[in-house]
Structure formats: C-alpha cells, structure tokens
Amino acid sequence: MGLFSKGIKLKKSVATRITLIEIPLPKKVVLPLKQYIGEPAKPTIKVGDKVKTGQLIASADQDNTLPLHASISGKVVDITEHLDHKGNTVASIIIESDGKDTWIKPSKEEENVSSLAPSEILNRIHASGLISKGLTPIPLKRDLVPIDQPKTHLYLDGRKIVKKTDTLLITAIDTEPSLGVNRYLAGIDSGELSNGIDSLKAITGAEQTLFVVDKRHLPCPQLNEIVAKDEEEATHIISLDGMRFPLGLSIPMIKAVLGREVPIPYGHPRDVGVAIYDIDTVISIGASVHRKIPRIESLITVGGGALSKEGIVKVRIGTQAGELIESLGGFSQDPAKIILGGPMMGMAQYELSVPITKEVHAVFVMTKDEIQVVGDYRECINCGLCVSVCPVNLIPGMLSMYCAKDRFEMAEAEGLFRCIECGCCDYVCPSQRPLVHLFRHAKNQLMEG
Questions:
Q1: CB-based contact 137:36 (threshold 8 Å)
Q2: pTM, two decimal places
Q3: How high is the mean pLDDT of the chain?
Q4: How does strand 74-83 pair with strand 50-51?
C-alpha cells in the first residue's frame, strides 16, 4: 500500500446521519441540456408535449454529448435559458408534473451482463446518460475509453507506450467526510453492484479489483461475498481513514492504495494502470447495462445546521434547490450559506431556483456558526502551511498572489491547472485568503481567453 501524507484531518463531519429520507415527487423540474463538460444535447420534444418518466427528450449524436431523459411525467412548459449551480445560463427543458409519475415501457433485462461485448456495454452506459464524477465531469463513456492525448507529460522521448489497466479500484469513501452516499451504499446490499463490476471488468480488462472502505464503517455482507467468490483471490477490501481529506478524490486515493502518481494536469488514472470509480457510479452502471435504466434520479447528501433534516435523499434530477429544501421541512433557522456540493468543494448559491443536476452530489444549508466569513483578507505571510497540506505539491500562496494581480499566465506556468480545488489551502490559511476562489477565477479567465 502507498503513502498519502498530505491533506488535512477534519475534526468532524457536518453530516453524521446516513439514513435515507423519503421526499415527494417535485412539482416541476428544470433539465439543462448540458450537465457535464461537452456539447449540449438536442431537444427531441417541443413545448406543449406530454412526456413520461424515463422518456428521451434530448438526443446525443456525438461522444462528448449525452442524451437527456424526463425525470417526471407531465407537460413540457418551456425550453429556455436557465441558471445552473455554477452560475452559467444553460438551455433547459422545463417540465411540470402531472403527479402520476407514469414511466415508459421498461426494457427487457439482460440475463448475463458478462456475455455482452464491451462495445454494447459502453453504448448502454452512454444511452443512460451517465457522467463521470470529479472536478471535470464528462460523459462516462469518454472516461472509460479516454481519447488519445499527447504523452509528453509522461514520456519525453516521443515513444508511444500503451499502459495496460491492471487494477479496478472501487471506492466507498466519499469525496468529503461530510458526504455520505458512498458510505450508505457500502452498508446495504444492491442487486446491481455485481453487474456494474462485471461491466467494468469487461471494458477495462483489469486483473484485480480493490474495494476501498472507510475503516469507521463496516462494509455490507455483499462486499465480503464478492471477495469470497473470487477463486483467483484477485479481489480485496482495503480500509482507510475516511476523515483524511481529500483522500476520497481519485489522485490521492490511487497514491494511498497503490503508491502510483497520476501525472497532472493532463494525466488520467489509466496512465498508471488504474480504473477508479465510486460505488454509486458502479451501481448506476449495473442498472444501465442490466436493465437499460436512464439516469433520472440521484442519491445526494443533505445537511447543515440550518436544514430541518440531514441524511441521504433520492432526488429526481432537475428538482429545484428551493423545492428540495421545502420537502425536507424548510429551514430550521436563518441560513447563512447554501452550498450545492460538499462544504469543502461545493459552490455557494444565491438563487434557490437552480436545479439539482447530475453534477450535484450534496446540498448543505449552513448556519453562521458553521461558516467562516472572510472580509478584507490579509496578504500572504509566507508561513508555508498551504504548501504542507497541498495534495498535488503546489505552492498555493504564490499562485494566489499571481491570480489576485490578474497575472493568469504566470499562474498557469506555475501549475495552476494542476490544482484539484480541494480547499485544503483555504482551510489552513491564517490570513484567510480565498485561495480556491482565486484559482477558479483564474482558470475561467484563461479558458475563456
């Protein structure tokens, strides 16, 4: 096992409960035509049409596009620009519910997933609209079969070397300790987990499978059964400290488990022979391949001191944040900040009309005692704390000074795009500099320029 010594040890989790909370169907959904990095889907319906749950409402004709499905049954009332959780205006399909949740006719289940050709598995994953998780969510099919990129960041002599994928890494550790979806799923049996594993093995050709679980939470019997059934003893369960952040992200996880370093910013886990996915994604893959179920809902974590309930919610994609909060009982006290995503890496919101998209994995409503209010921050004092915790070995203090002075090209030259925006530097900075905010602003300016 490798060593991951950077990052931070968070004192406690904001969301401690991982029980499933039942909520009613949304009265309306807002479905952006692009919920990933790529090109938007093309609507196949028009305003006034009636749709069923799971029905295709926007098509994808290229690999960097994903099809979109109705997450409720009802009537299409508009196709218009709408704000998303990142602050962008995106063309969106708006559906008002008929309250019936009438589904399209279900597809025939596949009896033996392992008998399917890898190309058919990939096509079913793409048709279901699955995305990869992480800093740059893209269509999952493109992540499973990455496009060729220049390997100058790996091999300076110009040789073309193809790295075989030898390890399938399935993590039940959430990207932030405050999140709980993967912990929840690792504690229950799922009929689609084995199908997802078989699908990923067929695509990647991995010789060994490793399950990574939080040492504070025992895995469900199903995981132990999967390990026990492996006659070649190539499947194992590894326990790590889920409170060490950002261990749940792919690059630190691969370092901690295998001792391999993914070359960044342009590298991919496949460059070091690893295919890594969380247990939520693996189960979704199993459902998409086995039963051809489109992605119309997500499991997300909800929490924060200003929210009436905390735990795990199964929410229909497109549900607006305000309606979700109301269905959970509303605010328990005046909210100081509403975050879509985890407290460390999420995006603060100013509009409750933004929808819960495929990219959103949590909603936190924080009290004033749970947040740190930054006014006029001080200059960097060169203490080096940010350097000591940075999991990708940057010098965040220096980068932030370049970004604050609009010297974006110099920040890029010093490794700006290697930043995984984990927020560890923000957490330890005694000058309370908004480092990740500065880095995100600089990245956006460079990409737009």
A1: yes
A2: 0.92
A3: 90
A4: antiparallel
